[in-house]
Write a structure and sequence with these properties.
The chain is of the alpha+beta class. The chain is about 50% helix and about 10% strand. Bound molecules: protoporphyrin IX containing FE. One of its GO terms (biological process) is cholesterol metabolic process.
Length: about 500
């Protein structure tokens, strides 16, 4: 894999700086919402416990867990161990930083329903610093407060409305077709006709190409036999930026300019913005040409952002770049895990194949309408995201006012760590939690205790994932892979999957 997800690496590593000037709003949904808390009787208020009453590991104990017990690289698994020790709500202290961990579906719901008008996840100071340095605009990941809401309201419609998202189907299907061709080539030239080495790496390139084709309305050639040099440099810069981000953020802001890697961090950002700038300007030139010739301006996401003039060019660039960064390894990791289970569990693969063929007989290319008739396909993705959530621990800061969760009152500016990973494996919500069971998502099989906040892989509320619909479209379309390959696939070297250099074996159906 080229890089770590920004969401995975950035969420809890950042100290929070909440935007100023925000007013308090009462949540209409919360059972014990802060609005009601304020008007509650003194008796009710007196019954509430405070942060001081919460148990949890000290800084030293956490250090021991991370480095003595080796949880540093698998911090998400620590959620499960700590919730067994301390219960569903506990505090972790890291010097001056106090984190409130929440590992129950009910309480996660309570936090999210009180997130206020401008939810704050993390302030990503290292990303913001680059933008300040080069006078670049913040995007949906780095912006906060009222400005963030303004950007989201411009970016949302064409990313989240089904009628707009379905118009990206052709572009993504073209990338799927190229991926299938690439697999055939790799099998023929490097895999004795059956093996494809480093499947996860190929999927990363698929995701990079897929999201670029939607965002920039252009093909970068990530799946070409020889990847263009400029594209290779672009992919490399994204990888380097993600590799350096968690290192930079470990140090105080004041020392960044003096750190040896800071210059490199800035230069990879420079390259990334330069490529994005070139692509956006190319599109603008195309639009100008069309206008000059009196032809209708044709296009999708970028064209719409540019011609609607709701954002300046710098703002478009800031947002498109962040969408690209959020949209690559998130989808490619999920597809890797889904294919891994399909490869290991032939009956699940077979059922999917039958479903796809029944909706798309012969050589029919799936449309977004076809996908809506494939519940098994969707259940496979939901189950994959439950077992391997891209964001195993999300965050929220109560930037607007104090809130009440689980009978405790938390002051303004409390940082909550939402332990989605632990909840995804809660056997009271998901029986046999370690087993890959897509059927649990089918209406007829749903467990009576199924909690809507048991698995929320794309987050919740107005700050939820901006790319959800596009990501789903990409993942659904590529999972119809077997339909196109006309081969079943099994895993080779499965113990390593989905890390780098893993091979998959493709066996002709007729064999
Ligand atoms: C399997 C694929 C993906 C998963 C599981 C995923 C998950 C998430 C999650 C959990 C969040 C945080 C939401 C919250 O705090 O409530 C998020 C935010 C975000 N995602 Fe995704 N994501 C995926 C793919 C994508 C793609 C393809 C794009 C771009 C097209 C994208 C763009 C974003 C952006 C821009 C944000 C920040 C939104 C904001 O802060 O306003 N994501 N994603």
């Amino acid at each position: 894999m080229f890089c770590k997800s920004l969401l995975k690496s950035g969420l809890l590593a950042c100290k929070q700086e909440s935007p100023s000037g925000l007013k308090c709003t009462a949540s209409a949904f919360s059972p014990v919402c802060e609005g009601r808390y304020r008007t509650a009787s003194t008796a009710v208020r007196d019954k509430l416990k405070t942060i001081d009453d919460l148990d949890g590991p000290s800084f030293l104990t956490s250090l021991y867990w991370f480095f003595g017990k080796g949880y540093f690289k698998v911090a998400h698994q620590m959620q499960i161990e700590h919730s067994k020790l301390y219960g569903p709500l506990w505090k972790s202290t890291y010097g001056p930083l106090v984190v409130i961990n929440v590992a129950s579906a009910d309480m996660i719901e309570q936090v999210l329903r009180q997130e206020g008008r401008y939810p704050v996840r993390t302030d990503m100071p290292h990303w913001r610093r680059y933008r300040d340095l080069r006078q670049q605009a913040y995007g949906p990941l780095t912006e906060m407060g009222a400005e963030w809401l303004r950007i989201r309201s411009i970016l949302n419609p064409r990313m989240l409305k089904p009628k707009h998202v379905s118009s990206y189907t052709n572009a993504i299907n073209e990338v799927v077709t190229d991926f299938v061709k690439k697999l055939a080539l790799l099998r023929a030239t490097k895999g004795n006709g059956v093996l494809v080495h480093d499947v996860a790496g190929e999927l990363y390139k698929f995701a990079f190409e897929g999201i670029s084709s939607v965002l920039f309305e252009t093909r970068l050639g990530c799946l070409n036999e020889v990847v263009p040099e400029e594209t290779q440099k672009f992919i490399f810069s994204v990888g380097e930026m993600f590799r350096l981000s968690p290192i930079v953020v470990l140090f105080p802001k004041s020392v960044w300019p003096y750190m040896p890697f800071w210059k490199h961090f800035v230069s990879v950002w420079d390259h990334l913005f330069k490529v994005a700038d070139d692509l956006v300007r190319k599109k603008m030139a195309q639009i100008d040409e069309d206008v000059k010739r009196g032809e209708p301006v044709d296009g999708e996401y970028l064209t719409h952002l540019l011609i609607s003039k709701q954002m300046s060019l710098t703002e478009v660039l800031g947002s498109i770049t962040e969408l690209l960064l959020a949209g690559v390894d998130t989808t490619s990791n999920t597809i890797s895990w889904a294919l891994y289970h399909l490869a290991r569990e032939p009956e699940i693969q077979e059922r999917l194949h039958k479903e796809v063929v029944s909706v798309c007989p012969g050589e029919k290319v799936p449309s977004s309408e076809d996908l809506s008739k494939m519940p098994w396909l969707k259940a496979i993705i939901k189950e994959t995201l439950r077992l391997y959530p891209v964001v195993p621990g999300n965050a929220r800061v109560t930037a607007e006012s104090e809130i009440v969760v689980g009978g405790y009152v938390f002051p303004k500016n409390t940082l909550f760590h939402l332990c989605h990973y632990a909840v995804s494996y809660d056997e009271t919500i998901f029986p046999e939690p370690h087993t890959f069971l897509p059927q649990r998502w089918l209406r007829e099989h749903k467990h009576p205790d199924h909690h809507p906040f048991g698995s929320v892989p794309f987050g919740f509320g107005i700050r939820a994932c901006l790319g959800r619909r596009v990501a789903e479209l990409e993942m659904y379309l590529i999972l119809t892979l077997r339909h196109w390959l006309l081969t079943a696939f099994t895993v080779y070297h499965h113990e390593l999957w989905p890390n780098a250099e893993v091979s998959a074996k493709f066996t002709d159906l007729s064999i």
